[in-house]
UniProtKB/TrEMBL annotation:
The lineage of its organism: Bacteria, Bacillati, Bacillota, Bacilli, Bacillales. It is a multi-pass membrane protein. Keywords: Membrane, Transmembrane, Transmembrane helix. The chain crosses the membrane at residues 12-35, 41-62, 74-93, 99-122, 134-153, 165-187, 223-241, 247-265, 277-294, 300-320, 341-365, 371-390. It is found in: Cell membrane. The keyword Membrane applies. InterPro entries: MFS (IPR011701), MFS_trans_sf (IPR036259), Sugar_transport-like (IPR052528). Gene3D superfamilies: MFS general substrate transporter like domains. This is MFS transporter.
Amino acid sequence: MKITLGRQSILLLGVNGLFALAGALSGTFLNVFLWKSRPDYTMIGWFTISQQLAIGITFWLAGKWVKEHNKMTTLRLGTACSGIFYLLVLWTGEQAVDWIWPLGLLLGCALGLFWIAFNVVYFEVTDRENRDLFNGWVGLLGSMAGIIGPWFSGLIISRMSDNTGYRFIFTVSLVIYIVAVICSFFLKKRKVSGTYRWSEPIRQLSIPNSPWRTLAMGLFAQGVREGVFAFLIALLVYLATTQEYKLGQFSLITSAVALVSYWAAGKWFKPHYRYRGMFAGGLLLLVVLFPLLWKVTYGTLLLMGIGSAIAMPLYMLPMISAGFDMMGTSGENVEKRVELVVLRELCLMCGRLFGLTIFMITVVNSPSQQVLIWLIIALGAFPLIGWAFMRKLLLKPLAREVSKEPK
């Protein structure tokens, strides 16, 4: 049977694609913009920590509105707040580094509002059969945005004097966020049901032998890596080259590879491949980091980026799909889908904050590049730890598939 996506799924992909494009245009260079105003690892670290705190708290608080009221309003508000963030960056200019916490909290709230609504709607418009296909398209569109956005931004920024290029790119992102808000009105208002349970994430984790405990540890391990890698790799590329254009080129190449790998994963990566695929992806994500021990150059960073782009779909698709599949295992879980989405994000947030705490301790005590590389490798091992936690959950659907085979 051919697996397809419905009209609402395609519309949701479109809104997500615009959101990703706006973020790719400006988000790739946001930390570079702050670094050029004040070259300080701890400042970048606090900016990222403030975002992660705001994302987690926003997920938990906004969950009530998403479940009991209009989740589309939440999605639009998150998109609009992202635009407001870049409006404020344009207004403050180089003084943005003096407003790290307020700006970081605003951006985190914007991301939290968008993603809690997106994740809940995503669950509602997909099922177990087409979820990997949808995730593949999300990765594909994200990769396309990563190809176009950073390359275009790097080209513009490098050709304009002072910070004129940054102001232009931030303005373009603001316009795209406005377009995304307009497009979101074509998404249908989703039905609401039930009462939001504030303590549900804690209750789920307190149940002995709960599969959500297993998933929580896997998500925590995933967050440890991505909390630091999300900003540090791009910053290292800029420091190695001192050219925004090179950073744009790096994103173009790695995103082009990711586009192909996500397309292939969306087409051929079936549920019964998740167990072995996730292990292979986690192992490759670690192996590609070792060339950095030899020398941190544009070439070694690019090798790492290409390898990570190939491995990431193998690792991420099982992690994402397994969690959302668990939400659909019973009518009770479907009813609590908002709380379970919140649980998922809180686990990721705790992992990201743990990784960022290790990063902050490291740069305060020994901010040398060699120490940073060893830190990157240590954090890069966490996907394998995540697979170790997740392997039992991944084997369950595999066992069901085997049991269905004719004897």
